[in-house]
Amino acid sequence: MSALSLSSPLTHPFRRFNLHHLSNKPVSSLFFCSAAKMNVHIHRVPEKLQRNHDLRVLDNDALYKAWSSSDTLLPVYCLDPRLFHTTHFFSFPKTGALRGAFLMECLADLRKNLMRRGLNLLIRSGKPEDILPSLAKDFGAHTVFAHEETCSEELHVERLVDKALKRVGNGTKLELIWGSTMYHKDDLPFDVLDLPDIYTQFRKSVEANCRIRSSTRIPVSIGPTPCVDNWGDVPTLGQLGLEPQEVNLPEKIFSLYINVVCLFFYLQDLLKVYKETRNGMLGPDYSTKFSPWLALDVSLLGLSMKRSDHSNFYPGPNMRFRGSKTFYVQRYERERIANNSTYWVLFELLWRDYFRFLSIKCGNSLFHLGGPRDVQGEWSQDKRLFESWRDGKTGYPLIDANMKELSTTGFMSNRGRQIVCSFLVRDMGLDWRMGAEWFETCLLDYDPCSNYGNWTYGAGVGNDPREDRYFSIPKQAQNYDPEGEYVAFWVQQLRRLPKEKRHWPGRLIYMDTVVPLKHGHGGGNAQASRVSKSRGGFRDNHSGRR
Ligand SMILES: Cc1cc2nc3c(=O)[nH]c(=O)nc-3n(C[C@H](O)[C@H](O)[C@H](O)COP(=O)(O)OP(=O)(O)OC[C@H]3O[C@@H](n4cnc5c(N)ncnc54)[C@H](O)[C@@H]3O)c2cc1C
């Protein structure tokens, strides 16, 4: 593990969430239902509960459906051991320690917030297809609600649960509810299987023809919960078989997540400049950092994919979220400013929707070497090359800094992800799935649709109208880290060099191996100095972001 000290990490990507003046944590968050993660709400008696008129807004359709059609609701989370096995082709840990820690914090937070809503969270270790039927039987539940999933592993679990419930034979059914995208699948102006192959066509069609659904109102309390003897504990990393990382993450970065919106939008007022900053790599402020929570289906009070006109949001020093689970871009636009930047966050979120819908259309081809376009090509699986990329020891500071950031924090900027993806596939000539699976291990925001969608796109086997999108390291360094601040932050040995040498250190310092690259730039340290001489001379056919 990297020995980088992050004890006062002003430039840490999640630094923003460690602000003490925000310690009055905003009210509740509820997250819920994903078949893979199986946060499942089981209900018993189907009777609408409408006695409490102090309404809160909820955008979790599965939770709403479960609550509104039941008398008693039992939220369940199954810690599925399959989440902690290994990745499909290359046997990396399926969940790295950082995401494991994040997940556990989210679970603890979920339980706390459900309790504030008159509920609780039952935590069980085991496979959902074993746990849920037995719970359904014990509690007499007639329906298990879960969010509908789209990728094969998750669909497999859905099928197993469905079968197991049927086997038990007491009439309990599995009801899958669509959630987590900004636009509802049923509102698309085309059948999802006819999804346009090009993002821009998708975006234009959706923007012209669809509306984002509003949130639903529910009472403050959505209890009562059934009587349960043992609700189960949130496990430690050790119990999950994960090694705690030897890094000093900013305290409470995870549990203050709701402040993402407060800080980015209101306190720091960064939304209005997002379009100019979004290609940054260093620090917390260049982009929203929503992704880890969106990936875990954390429906925040305040951060959600939905729009609501009846939200209550009070920006200010005693900032609190009251009420709605809404996405605040429109609100910010009304109250402060509407410009290209405010629109651009929605533009990016629409990419997320696109990859989710695409995963339905493409099915398993998203995970195949040739990708959805079934491209025939030759890629190597050279272990040594891959390890130099994984460990941040290629000799290219821009690659190495990004990879060190990933393994230390579980995060990498979108710019960085595109650069290291292009490098792995087009410079190293490696099988893109090695990179995708390593991202699967490390990313806090790992999501199969966005991860594999972006990797196939970047590798030239997916939905990119341009077939060989190449990111030249010299050009990227020049455009996005001209002072070498980013690389020097993550590769300590570069700090003592003058700024103009940081991307081109010559024969150096931190590399174990000399890596010969496919494009013939030379190898390792030698390659770094060679690249420096021809700075700007390499082909970079990609100047903007998609
Ligand atoms: C090779 C590669 C792998 C990726 N893997 C993942 C992944 O596993 N999970 C994931 O959430 N994102 C993934 N992304 C997309 C993107 O890099 C991250 O969503 C983004 O960097 C997260 O930071 P942010 O929340 O500050 O983003 P912002 O720039 O603030 O964008 C706001 C939100 O828009 C969405 N978004 C932005 N760009 C994309 C995109 N290209 N694709 C899909 N959604 C997007 C995210 O939900 C993000 O939180 C990947 C990109 C690449 C190039």
Explain what the structure shows.
This protein is an alpha+beta fold and 546 residues long. Among the domains are: 30-180, 3-Layer(aba) Sandwich (Rossmann fold), CATH 3.40.50.620; 383-509, DNA Cyclobutane Dipyrimidine Photolyase, subunit A, domain 3, CATH 1.10.579.10. It is 36% helix and 8% strand. It contains 18 helices and 11 strands. It has a 5-stranded mixed β-sheet with strand order 5-4-2-6-7, sandwiched between helices. A two-stranded antiparallel sheet has the order 1-9. Strands 3-8 form a two-stranded antiparallel sheet. α2 (97-116) links the parallel β4 and β5. α10 packs across α15 and α14 packs antiparallel against α15. Mean pLDDT is 75; it is low at 1-11, 15-55, 247-259, 299-326 and 520-539.
Structural class of the helix and strand makeup?
alpha+beta
Shape: globular
* Pattern of helices and strands: EEEHEHEHEHEHEHHHEEEHHHHHHHHHH
Instruction: Output the number of helix runs.
Output: 18
Radius of gyration, in Å, reads: 24 Å
Strand order of the largest sheet: 5-4-2-6-7
Helix content: 25-40%
The CATH homologous superfamily of the domain at 30-180: HUPs
Heteromolecules bound: flavin-adenine dinucleotide
Secondary-structure arrangement, i.e. CATH architecture of the domain at 30-180 = 3-Layer(aba) Sandwich
Low-pLDDT residue spans: 1-11, 15-55, 247-259, 299-326, 520-539
**Straight-line distance between termini:** 33 Å
Quaternary assembly? single chain
CATH topology-level fold name of the domain at 30-180: Rossmann fold
CATH class descriptor name of the domain at 30-180: Alpha Beta
Reported for the largest beta sheet, the result is: 5 strands, mixed
Keywords: FAD, Flavoprotein
Cofactor: FAD
GO molecular function: deoxyribodipyrimidine photo-lyase activity; DNA binding; FAD binding
Pfam families: DNA_photolyase (PF00875), FAD_binding_7 (PF03441)
